[in-house]
Design goal:
The complex is a heterodimer of chains A (691) and B (303). By secondary structure, chain A is of the alpha/beta class. Chain A contains 24 helices and 16 strands. An eight-stranded mixed barrel of chain A has the order 8-9-11-12-13-14-15-16, surrounded by four helices. In chain A, strands 2-3-1-6-7 form a five-stranded mixed sheet, sandwiched between helices. Chain A has a two-stranded antiparallel ribbon with strand order 4-5. In chain A, helix 3 runs antiparallel to helix 7, helix 13 packs across helix 14 and helix 15 runs parallel beside helix 17. Classes of the chains: A alpha/beta (691), B mainly alpha (303).
């Protein structure tokens, strides 16, 4: 997953969680409200039961304060519930239910009011009956008193039990009425008995009405509705909380994952999934930190693919990438479990191999890796042969510092490359060889000149347009009986340090001049001999006089001698170089700048130098025509030479392709294996005779 | 000797017979001070009426029993009303307001006279407009977030009226245990008040104001007003009026909804005859009146 996608996902999740949270708050608010409504409905239920109780027991209340308060509370709760209808929290059904409750309550209220009035009237009627009965009992008329008590008793029976027959009471009242009324009390008794009977009947009527009242039922409906609503809400809230938790977990996981990914990206190579340079350096430091010198060693293998650049440039990066992946896979097959492989550069790999001294095997490992690639690799339809150069450094033998070990392995790898690629080199081995070489070289050099161990070879300079050898470059070779053939790169620096270069330079100069005189007899085209001169020679006081003496002795034409000096050498001391070069030029020598393009030369100085020839460095020629920048540089140097009227020479031409391309750029002279390798005098004569 | 009726009465009504059916007015009541102050200003303000002549206090003199001592009150332009103004004192303890119970509480009641064409003759849109051009705009803003509205005007007035209580009447002191707070005649009057049956309607904290009862249970009273019927239009409710409070009754003559009697003895006699349907002696009437006079107390003023 890409980072931008992760970020987007995080945003979406954040928005989601925000929405959920908002909904939770809202739901919680709704639930709170629902709980309040529920509470109110419970109050309604409670009071409604008390109303029923009040109406059914129809008695003990002489003080209506209590029941009035309950009616008020009921009204308040109902008002609260109906005020919510305007807020539209609940569906329409709620409003209908509330209206039903309101309607049945107003009926109930009517009943209560009638009951209260009736009850008050009944109460004071009964009080009065009680007073009258007492007054009548005091009189001597027992028939009347008996009948009065009878009426009273029957009224009570009827009051308590509504099914009692009221005929008995009305009969008795009629009987009392039939008596000749001379008694005021009896007259009132009869009136109030009738009244009381009427009130009791009304009570029973109210009971029937009471039973038909639907208040309780409607409140229960409302209660059920709210309970369902409440439960539904709780259910929804549970789901929301569930999603909320899931989202939180998702975000946390995503953040952890992203963090890990970033960490992984920071320490791993995206192409091969191997550790990267940072990672392996940290690992190496860590291992060295915990290093146990007695028991173990750490080997650092620095691997560089040979000519990988060519594959990338010619076949494209996708093939190059696939090749790198395959290389990584193959290398991993030979690694021990503890070994760590990392990709530290474009085509560079590194292995940290840590083992106890017993089975420490960097050499074996290197050999195994090299042998892995004896078989060509098939990548996307291409069969590629690839070799690699491996440099090995070892802790603690070489060093105990991670950076140093890496550097040493790198140096050793270059050593392997220089030695012809497809091999491995140990840093220590190389160092000792170098050290031994140097000592040997110094020792051997002392008598080498006297022993005639040096000889000069010549590499043709070929006019690529006229297809003729027009010049030669003199190159020194050293064949020592003990050391064998030693390359100039190794011994020249030593001779420079020893000062032997002066003598050696004169030997080469003289030998080259003499040989050139001989060569000229065999070719009409040959007209120059290039001789390399070291900067050390420039500082020799009598340098010019000495070589002029040789020229006189040999009898060579000065103008046919080209003094080659490296760009780097000139730039080290510009003023001095310029003075010497000007003198040489004045005497008639031609001046050639060797390895042009590598020495940071300034064009302004170049203009001031008395130059005749520029030699384009081999490193540029190697990469044409594939590498665009090399092409540009070569093209520029050729164009520059033409403008400045310099002869341009391309060094190190190895292929026909290079030759043709340089020809197309307008290059004049080429030098390299494509034409001829350096030849000794005898072979050269044969070579030029063939032309 | 107890007869059967007495036993059953005691069984069924007994609890109330022994427990005092009248409770004293609390010495303190809870109310919102800010609202009450605003309500008090409104209560005494004639700007509430259409022509700036009548205030609530015009018919409810809180220092003289909470009414106007007239048979019928006068509204704007000297229009005479058709009902006796009931007292505003202790009105908070009534279960409903108005003689016919047409208002469920004080707030609902406050809107009535204000809009009655023969009382204050005003209407709320007009009143709100008027008040918004006065100091009331600021005063309301301090108390109510939504400023001057019908609900807020009546709420403030009702809040003030809730403060109008008359605690510490001699009879309340007596109920609280101060045996010498009323004299022997008053005590006998109270016993008669209960035994005659007055207590059946006049009970509770307000000695009335607890139920509706028929005006003329025993005999026809020839009332012009129909009472609760005017609200419910239910035949059963004809001549049923809210039983009025007897607190401060000595200060609230004339009596009954049509103010037909000017002294207490007449109305006590009337009640015995028309409501209870029983004989009452002059001595009993006098004792009951003595008792009734112990129900008066000065209004407790808010700070």
């Amino acid at each position: 997953m890409r980072f931008s996608n992760v970020n987007n996902l995080l945003w979406v999740l954040s928005f989601f969680i925000f929405t959920l949270f908002g909904y939770m708050v809202y739901s919680n608010y709704s639930l709170d409200k629902a709980a309040k409504y529920h509470n109110s409905v419970h109050n309604l239920e409670l009071y409604s039961k008390e109303f029923d109780n009040f109406l059914l027991t129809q008695n003990k209340f002489i003080n209506y304060d209590v029941i009035n308060k309950k009616v008020k509370f009921f009204e308040d709760n109902l008002a609260f519930l109906s005020s919510q209808t305007s807020q539209k929290i609940f569906p329409l059904e709620y409003i209908t239910l509330i209206q039903k409750v309101q309607k049945s309550f107003s009926e109930k209220e009517e009943l209560i009011e009638h009951f209260k009035s009736n009850n008050a009237q009944l109460l004071y009627s009964m009080h009065y009956l009680f007073d009258l009965t007492k007054a009548i009992s005091k009189e001597s008329n027992t028939t009347i008193a008996e009948n009065v008590k009878n009426v009273e008793l029957n009224l009570l029976k009827f009051y308590i039990n509504p099914t009692t027959n009221t005929k008995n009471i009305t009969d008795k009242i009629s009987f009392l009425e039939s008596l000749k009324l001379h008694n005021e009390a009896l007259k009132y008794f009869i009136v109030h008995s009738k009244l009381t009977l009427h009130k009791i009947k009304q009570f029973h009527l109210m009971k029937t009405k009471q039973q038909k009242n639907t208040l309780q039922k409607n409140i229960l409906l409302l209660d059920n509705f709210l309970t369902t609503y409440y439960e539904h809400h709780i259910y929804v809230i549970k789901i929301v909380i569930f999603f909320f938790v899931i989202t939180v977990i998702a975000i946390i996981l995503l953040l952890i994952f992203t963090n890990k990914k970033v960490e992984y990206m920071a320490y791993h190579d995206s192409l091969t999934k191997l550790a990267n340079r940072t990672n392996i350096e940290l690992y190496l430091q860590e291992r060295i930190g915990k290093f146990n010198q007695e028991n173990s060693k750490i080997a650092v293998l620095f691997i560089d693919l040979d000519r990988f650049k060519n594959i990338n440039d010619t076949l494209g990066h996708h093939i190059g990438d696939a090749l790198l992946q395959e290389v990584a896979t193959r290398i991993q097959t030979v690694l021990a479990p503890n070994d760590i492989l990392a990709r530290v550069g474009g085509d560079e790999f590194m292995i940290i191999s840590e083992n106890s001294t017993k089975n420490f095997r960097p050499a074996k490992l290197s050999k195994e890796i090299l042998s892995l690639f004896t078989q060509p690799i098939k990548v996307k339809g291409h069969t590629l042969s690839i070799t690699m150069s491996i440099g090995v450094s070892i802790a603690p033998d070489d060093d105990l510092d991670a950076a140093a070990l890496l550097k040493f392995a790198d140096i050793a790898m270059y050593e392997a490359k220089d030695s012809g690629k497809n091999r491995y080199k140990f840093y220590k081995e190389r160092l000792s060889i170098l050290a031994n070489d140097r000592l040997d070289i110094e020792q051997s050099l002392i008598n080498s000149l006297n022993n005639n161990e040096f000889f000069v070879v010549y590499q043709p300079k070929y006019d690529i347009q006229k297809r003729k050898t027009v010049g030669l470059e003199a190159l020194v070779r050293w064949q020592n009986p003990k050391l064998g053939f030693v390359s100039p790169e190794k011994f020249i620096p030593v001779t420079e340090e020893m000062g032997l270069i002066i003598e050696l330079g004169l030997f080469i100069f003289k030998q080259a001049c003499q040989d050139f005189m001989e060569f000229k007899k065999h070719s009409q085209y040959l007209h120059s001999i290039s001789i390399n001169v070291s900067a050390i020679q420039f500082y020799e006081e009598n340098f010019i006089d000495t070589i002029l003496a040789i020229i006189d002795e040999v009898g060579i034409d000065i103008s046919s001698i080209k003094i080659e000096i490296t760009e780097t050498h000139i730039m080290k001391n510009i003023e001095h170089s310029m003075a010497i070069l000007n003198q040489l030029r004045l005497k008639g020598f031609e001046i050639s700048i060797d390895d042009f393009g590598t020495g940071h030369s300034s064009l302004s100085y170049l203009k001031r130098f008395p130059i005749n020839e520029l030699k384009i460095d081999k490193s540029f020629v190697d990469d044409i025509p594939q590498d665009k920048s090399s092409v540009a540089i070569v093209d520029t140097i050729i164009t520059l030479s033409k403008h400045m009227h310099y002869v341009n020479v391309a060094e190190g031409i190895e292929t026909l392709e290079q030759n043709n391309f340089l020809l197309s750029l307008g290059c004049e002279i080429g030098q390299g294996y494509f034409f001829s390798k350096p030849l000794n005098a005898k072979d050269l004569i044969t070579f030029i005779q063939k032309e | 000797m107890l007869n059967v009726l007495q036993v059953v009465l005691l069984f069924y009504f007994g609890v109330s017979l022994w427990a005092e059916p009248i409770t004293p007015i609390p010495k303190e009541v809870q109310y919102d001070h800010k609202k009450a102050q605003l309500g008090k200003k409104l209560f005494f303000d004639t700007r509430l009426s259409k022509n700036n002549t009548i205030s609530c206090a015009s018919c409810h003199n809180i220092y003289e029993g909470g009414d106007d001592n007239l048979q019928y009150s006068f509204g704007i332009n000297a229009q005479e009303g058709n009902i006796n103004s009931p007292t505003v004192l202790n009105a908070r303890f009534n279960f409903r307001q108005f003689w016919n119970g047409g208002a469920k509480d004080l707030q609902a009641q406050a809107a009535g006279p204000l809009q009655n064409p023969i009382e204050m003759g005003n209407n709320f849109p007009n009143l709100i407009k008027t008040l918004n051009n006065t100091e009331y705009k600021e005063l309301f803003a301090k108390v109510y977030s939504d400023g001057i509205t019908k609900n807020n005007i009546t709420d403030a007035i009702a809040e003030y009226e809730k403060t109008l209580i008359t605690p510490n009447a001699p009879f309340d002191k007596y109920l609280r245990g101060e045996k010498t707070a009323i004299n022997l005649d008053a005590k006998e009057g109270y016993e008669l008040f209960k035994s005659k049956g007055c207590i059946a309607c006049h009970h509770g904290i307000n000695i009335g104001g607890n139920l509706y009862n028929k005006f003329g249970v025993a005999k026809a009273t020839h009332s012009k007003r129909l009472g609760r019927y005017e609200v419910t239009h239910n035949e059963d409710d004809k001549y049923y009026f809210k039983v009025p409070t007897l607190r401060n009754i000595a200060q609230t003559a004339p009596y009954l909804h049509d103010g037909r009697y000017n002294n207490l003895e007449d109305v006590v006699r009337f009640m015995a005859q028309y409501q209870l349907g029983r004989v009452i002696t002059q001595e009993e009437v006098e004792k009951i009146v003595i008792f009734l006079k112990t129900l008066s107390a000065p209004v407790k003023e808010i700070q």
